[in-house]
DNA sequence: TCGTTGTCCGTACGGGTGTCCGGGTATTCC
DNA sequence: GGAATACCCGGACACCCGTACGGACAACGA
């Protein structure tokens, strides 16, 4: 951190509002944790993997790539990230590896942040929807 | 797209599940739109700006930096991004610029994706709050 | 009028992220 | 056993994103 620049705005313009915000504001750590979770699903491939697993219950990597119509490498990378974060679980049967949502997957994340948002971005915000 | 590699997995292992996933899956464009919105709030500074504006109703840039205890540049950049996306609105009074959530701000985004998530990540099953 | 304050803008830089590509491993069929 | 399949891994590359910094502008107070 540099101190060359003087601390700006020494006197709050509205001290009361600042105090209220400060007191009810999530800490930087909490915000970082939330941001981390959101970053995980802020990717078309990863979110669609979660959508697909939510719909199909269980899929292997190849079928997942087929369903999403994307490269298998992309699916592999997305699954690695999601698996590292503990959001998906895998089961091996012979030479095929099946993936599903983790048993303790936070459902609010899927319901509120994905399914609801896809409906939200489609219609009300005056988006050009065919 | 390259075709050097042979198309893997020509025959689905479980055609029915693939078909079901394919049919109920958001399109790549929809997923990209959702990812875009989520990316906007997948940043500690930006999300805390939204939290603060939700709590305090209206704040100027300097007070915002004071409340979040971050550099003023960071707040400025966050506000620029949020403003470009149309998530916040500003009002100029003299030389002070006040920011607030945009009139048509999608409340589900804030309620479901931010406030609820911060409670979720803090303690898996505890709600202490608003 | 002149200096100061609050905010915006453009640019350059460091770091993180996704994709491409090679090779590697385990399992099944002949 | 040997070949083929389905998947995993790790490095290399380009790209985007957030930050820092300097300058610019408008608005107040003297």
What's the short version?
The structure is a homodimer of 130-residue chains. With 130 residues, the first copy, chain A, is mainly alpha-helical.
Notes on the protein architecture:
Two copies of one chain form a homodimer. With 130 residues, chain A is mainly alpha-helical. Chain A has one domain: Winged helix-like DNA-binding domain superfamily/Winged helix DNA-binding domain (Arc Repressor Mutant, subunit A), CATH 1.10.10.10. Chain A is built from six helices and three strands, in the order αααβααββα. A three-stranded antiparallel β-sheet of chain A has the order 1-3-2. In chain A, α4 (61-68) packs across α5 (72-84). The longest helix of chain A has 16 residues, at 107-122.
Oligomer: homodimer
Strand content of chain A: 5-15%
Q: Kindly report how far apart the N and C termini of chain A lie.
A: 49 Å
The structure class of chain A reads mainly alpha
Q: Mind telling me which CATH architecture of chain A this is? A: Orthogonal Bundle
Number of helices in the DSSP assignment of chain A: 6
In the predicted model, the low-confidence regions of chain A spanning at least 5 consecutive residues are 1-7, 125-130
* CATH topology annotation of chain A: Arc Repressor Mutant, subunit A
Count of beta strands of chain A: 3
Query: How do the strands line up in the largest sheet of chain A?
Result: 1-3-2
């Amino acid at each position: 951190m540099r101190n060359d620049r003087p601390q700006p705005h020494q006197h709050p313009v509205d001290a009361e509002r600042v105090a209220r915000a400060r007191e009810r504001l999530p800490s930087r750590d909490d915000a970082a944790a939330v941001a981390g979770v959101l970053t995980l699903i802020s990717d078309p491939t990863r979110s669609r993997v979660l959508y697909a697993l939510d719909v199909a219950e269980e899929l292997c990597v190849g079928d997942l790539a087929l369903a999403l119509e994307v490269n298998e490498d992309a699916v592999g990378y997305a699954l690695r990230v999601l698996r590292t974060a503990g959001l998906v679980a895998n089961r091996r049967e012979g030479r095929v590896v099946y993936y599903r949502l983790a048993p303790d997957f936070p459902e609010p994340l899927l319901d509120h942040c994905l399914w609801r948002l896809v409906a939200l971005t489609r219609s009300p915000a005056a988006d050009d929807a065919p």
